[in-house]
Structures are given as C-alpha cells and as structure tokens.
Amino acid sequence: MSELTGWGTEVVITVCPHCDWRYLVPVDKAALRCPHCFAADLEPVTEGVEQLPYLHPPELMTPFSVTKTTADQHIEKFADGIPFAPRDLNPEALRSRVQPLYLPMWLVDGDVTATWEAEAGFNYDVVSHQERYSDGGGWATQQVQETRIRWEPRVGQLERHYDNIVAPALEQHAAMEQALGVYALDNTQPYAVGTLERALVRLPDRAPEAAWADAAPAFQAAAGEECRQAAGADHIRQFRWSPAYTGQHWTLLLLPLYATYYLDDDDEPRPVLINGQSGRVFGVRRASMQRAQHTALIIVAIAAVLFLLSLAVGVAGLAVPPLLAVGGIGGVLALCVGLGAIVPIVRVWQFNRKPVETL
Amino acid sequence: MTTPFPPPGFIPAASAIPGIAVYAPAPEETEALPEIIEFKCPQCQAMTAYCVADGGLRCTYCGYYEPPKRSIVGKGAQEFEFTVETMAVASQAHGWGETRQELQCQNCNARATLPPGRLTHTCPFCGSNRVLQQDAPQDVLRPRFLIPFKIEADTCRPIAEKWLGSSWMTPKSLKQSTVAGFTGIYLPYWTFDAVTQADWKAEVGHQETRRRYNSSTKSWESYTVTVWRWESGRVRKFFDDLLVTGTARLSGVLLRQLQNYDTHALVAYEPQYLAGFLAQAYDIPLEKAWEEGREAMRAATRDACRGQASTSQIRNFSMALDFSEESWRYVLAPIYMTVFQYEGQPYQVMINGQTGAIAGQRPVDWHKVWLVVGAIVAPGALLSLLGVLAMVLGLLLPPALGAAAVLLVPGIILLIIGGIIAFTIVGKARRMGDV
Fold this sequence. Notes:
The structure holds two protein chains of two kinds.
Chain A: E1 11-15, E2 22-26, E3 43-44, E4 60-61, H1 68-79, H2 91-96, E5 99-134, E6 138-168, H3 173-180, E7 189-190, E8 200-202, H4 208-230, E9 235-263, E10 269-275, E11 281-283, H5 289-319, H6 322-340, H7 342-351
Parallel strand pairs in A: 4-9, 5-8
Antiparallel strand pairs in A: 1-2, 1-3, 2-8, 4-7, 5-6, 5-9, 9-10, 10-11
Helix pairs in contact in A: 5-6, 5-7
Chain B: E1 10-13, E2 20-25, E3 36-38, E4 48-51, E5 56-59, E6 65-66, E7 80-81, H1 84-92, E8 101-104, E9 111-114, E10 120-122, E11 129-132, E12 145-146, H2 153-164, E13 183-214, E14 219-245, H3 252-257, E15 267-268, H4 271-274, E16 278-279, H5 286-308, E17 314-342, E18 345-352, E19 358-360, H6 366-396, H7 400-431
Parallel strand pairs in B: 12-17, 13-16
Antiparallel strand pairs in B: 1-2, 3-11, 4-5, 5-6, 7-17, 8-9, 10-11, 12-15, 13-14, 13-17, 17-18, 18-19
C-alpha cells in the first residue's frame, strides 16, 4: 500500500458493491455513494489490493475546464423541458449531488527500434484552366492552380523514444468516449498534489498487458507522423513497420468528469455525467409516468363530477324541460374532459420512447 | 533468409529527425553523354549513321550494325504535368540550345557555325555525323522521346514524283523535273493530353408545321414556324496526344497537312537515332504551344456540345469548360524536306518520315487552268448570250420570245454552276503555292 502515499492526500481504495467500480477516495469521504451507479455506498477494499493494475499517483492530469457554475448551467439545461419530470429530476437536486471524478487513461513511455516503409506524399502545384464561352462574348479563360500530391516510396530505420502514448485504462472507455466525447489531450498538466481533496479517482480495470493492444497502434501512428516529418513529406500513407519495444514505462493520465443523479419513478438512481473538459452531458432524461397517471386521475375525477352534475340536471330536466339541454351539454363536456385524461399518459409514453442508454 | 536493408535501388536521403534514417529510390541513372557525340564505326573508323531499314546504326563502308539500345515505348512514354515550376522555366526558356555554336570537326578540322536550335551536324567536308547534347534549362525540356524514321530517303523521290504528276493543274514539263536531295530532319513537336468537361446551354430551334385559315382564299393552309426551346447538356472529351508543332521556322500550312504521326511508335530518345539526320530544337515555347493545343481542344469540345443539341439550329449558346488531367511531352518527329526549282522559282516539298504523307508547293499552269475555267463557263455564257439576243429579237418578232426563254433559263443555270466550279478550281490552284 506504499503506492498510495504519493497521492498527497490520505486515500483509501473503495469499491461499489453494486457496479464493482473501484475508486481512490480521501479517507474522510470514504462513505460516498458510487458516482457511477449511485446505487450503493462505497466500501473500503481490504482484500486483493495487490491484484489491482496500478495504484501509483498519475503522471499527468487534464484539469477541469468546466467550472462548477458552468456545470450548473448544463444541469439546468438537462433538467429543462421534460414533461411530467420525476420530482427528483430538478436542477437543485442534481446540483446538490454533483461529485467531481477523474477517469484514468494509461500513459506509456518506451524505446522503439524498427525498420519502416511507407509512401510519402509531396504537395506540388499545377496550372490548369477554366474557360467560359458565349455566342456574344467569345472565350474567357481563367488560369487556376491546383495542389496535387506526388507519392513516392520511402523506407528507413528508426530508433526513437516515445513519451506519453495514451491507451484506455477502462473497459468502458470507448462507451465513455461515445457518451461524453473525446478528451483533448493537449492541455495536460503534471499531477497536482491535493487533487484528491476535491475529486475521486476511478481506478483502472484494464491491465497494461490488455491495454497494449491499443497502445501499439498509437506508437505506430506517432512513429508514422515522425517518419513523415523526417522524410520532409506533406503526407504519409501505407506506413508499415517491424518494431521492437524496450524500456516501457506505464503511468496514468486523469480525465475530469462530473457525476450526479436523480431518482426515477421507482426510486432508482439515474446517473448524469458531465465531461469536465467540454461540458458535454450524458444522461437519460425520463418523464414520470407516475406523475402523468396522477394528473390523468385528477382529470378523470373532474370529468366524473361534471358527469354527475349533468346527470342531476338532466333528471331535473324531466320536470323542467329546458334543463334537459343543459344536462346534455354538461354530459358532452364531461366526456371531453374525460377523454383529455389520456393526454398526459400519451405525452409521457411518447417522451420515454427514446432508447435508454447506459454506460 | 533476412531481407537486405535498405532494399536494392534505395539510397540514403536527408532526414529532418535524429534517430530516423530515410532511404529514397535512387534516381534513374542517366548516362553522362559527352557534349558532342561523333558516330564512328568501331571496326573501320568510317562514319556510321542511323539506318531506316534496320532501325539502328550502320557503317556504310564495312556494314557494321549496332541495334538501338531502347525499345518502343509508344503511348506509355512519360508525360509531364503543367507544374508551376515547369511553366515558370518554360516561359523563360526559348528553346533548347538557343545560342549559336561554332564547331570544329575532329575528323578534318573544318570549322562550321550552327544556326540556333540545331541538334545535329554533318561536316560538309568529310561527312562525319555528330549529335550535340546541349544544356536544357530544365531536364524535362529536353527531347525525351522521338518517332524514328520509317520511310527511307530513297523512297521520297518516287513519292514526290507521283505527287507532282497527280494534279492536272501542274505544267506538263514538271514531270520531267528532278525532285531530289531530300534531307531527313527531326522536327520538334509538343504532344498534349487532357480531359475537357463542359456544361452547355442554348436555345435550340425546332421546326413546327401549323395550320391557319386564310380568309381571303377561304381555305386552310399550312405554315412552318421555328419554336425555340432551352436545352442543356454535359460533354466529357478525352484528348490523347494532340500534336502541336514546336517550330515556327517551317511552313505551318505544310506541317499541318503532315501531322498524321502515330505516337504508338514513340521511342526513348537516343542520340543514335539522330545520326545522319538534321534535328531542330523547339522555338515555340511550351506555354504558347499549349495555348494552341487548348484552342483546338476547346473548339472540338464546343462542336461536341453543339452536336448534342437536338437540332442544328442554335442560338444563345454558352458553355463552361474545365480542363483536367493535362499533360505534355516534348518529342521529335521525322520529316523529309527538299526544295526544287522550276523556271527559276523555288518550291518546298515535305514528306512525313513515318507515314509517307506528302505536302508541298507545286507550280500551276495558269494557261491550262484558265482554259478549263473558260471551257466550264463557256456553255452557260453562250446560251445566256443567245437568250439575250433572242429576247432583243423578240421585241421585233414576238414568237422569238419563246425561244429566248428556252435559251436563257438553262443558260443562266449552267452559268451559275460553271461559275461555282470555276471558282473552286481557281481557289485550289491558288492554294497549291501556299506555304
């Protein structure tokens, strides 16, 4: 557990008994709800810690670009415009539960020795012509320049060191990226001690051996780009190489995320996630069928009262014939109101028809 | 078995990043030829020259034969794009080997001054052949390909004599003239490829027959009107090896008549092909030649667009044309030339060295031409004259008016037809001397 000392804050490893996500949490926040499923409180991990892929402090982190205020605005927008929204789906409730969180990504450093071959593309300009003709005006010629690419074969040898090649550290990384968008990695910073005082850190569930399948193509892409620059080319394609990797060093990069939730009709937590860098929101917006049914019942009750009144007026109409017409009108009105009861239910059904996405 | 690195044919290239070695294909090895190549027989030291019949170098004394090093490349001959760099250089250059050169024959020490652009020289004193490998402003502006001679010089005379005797307009005594001394010369040509795509629109006239009631004749009658409708279309046309002459020093009129070269016979340039022939570098630069080429292409595309219209009655025609996939080649094409004298006047004759097509100037026997013209016009003129006389006579003797009409009508018709034929004959006779 000596790895945990470098984080700058006293932390414990916790796990969600419901979704099995593991976190590093400051000791004083160990009893938090799981910011992924919000279905259970986090429990400290006491056994099998040695099997966890990585517990060292990360090398780099992407800071939160979305402030708390901006996140609140995104939350308000998320909660707005839902017909018969669940009582818990309101900005106040969502705001009060916001939990900052960091997702991990692997950073790999390594030395590569390889032979490579590719087609290098060089831009060049050609002169072309566009012409117009009309019976009255004759020919009008315009000279235009077009940029074309000349592809030439290149081969070579490479002996380079690459730093901070990224690879997913979570099995759900692709789904996360689809939901929250791709994080830009150009403004990463060294890990700041004290980061964990404000946010939790999700622990990797993917070992470096498993992540290598994604890291190797990233190494190839980086090498391809360097070979393009080395050849002085404008483009490169068909890059193939036979690499030999040595001196690999794995560390982590943290990506920022806000997590909150609301309770649906069945009191089940529905997570809402906000990309801490771009502000993109992911969550299921559900209308409340319960609230729709309550509204429908009230409308039916009003219709029933109207109907009974109309019936009474109609009976009185047997004695005073003009009241018979009033009773008839009241009956029709009651029927119309009664039919209107279906509107809230249909509205909610239609809104909830959208597929439910979960991570 | 391990693959060798770098692969064969690759050489080290500059690398902008330390730790990365880059290898590029080695440039095609170009044989460093001396500035002036003399063709001497390795067996007897006599002069050798390109032999049209054998397609290689042959010694006229001992019969030594050296086949050409390279084979036919045909339409696969490398084409060049109109890159900005090439156009910039081509606009500054005025041909390859522009400056006059003074040569001293290494065989007999005679000195000769060559005119601009001349690529070959045969010493007038000892007959030794040489090809000059002058510097080009850019490598692509050297002749890279040529169409070799297929017609032997000996064949030119019968071709020319047959051609001279093929027209009745030439003087009878011309058949006895000697048309000899044909000189083989490689002329510069630009070949152009391009795809043109044109979108056109025009008003196209359609004839429609309608009926209307004529109140004065109280009957229905038919009449024709032209109805104009807008039509549009798209034409895509591929031009392959459009030839444009690269020299303005010879008659463009004659060269255009001989331009039926088959570019399937293109071979890579070898100085051996030029041995024993004259050769001229271009003096019409690429840009100017391409202007001429484009003009021909856009005219052909415009004709194709007009051909798409549903009738030939067209007005308000307009089109937008895009050129793409443009490329060019600089080639040498063979021609035989001679000048013969007739009654003290020089006449040029040229023969396509590949196909044998002939074009040239021929003297015209104008007495013969005017006699024929007179014979054609005379019947109509005579009948018309008789008709007029009969008409005058008809003023005194009215029955003669009928005869006047019988004579005058066919007379005028014959006169018109005869006039048209005579006009054509005179025009053709005048063009026989054009250069």
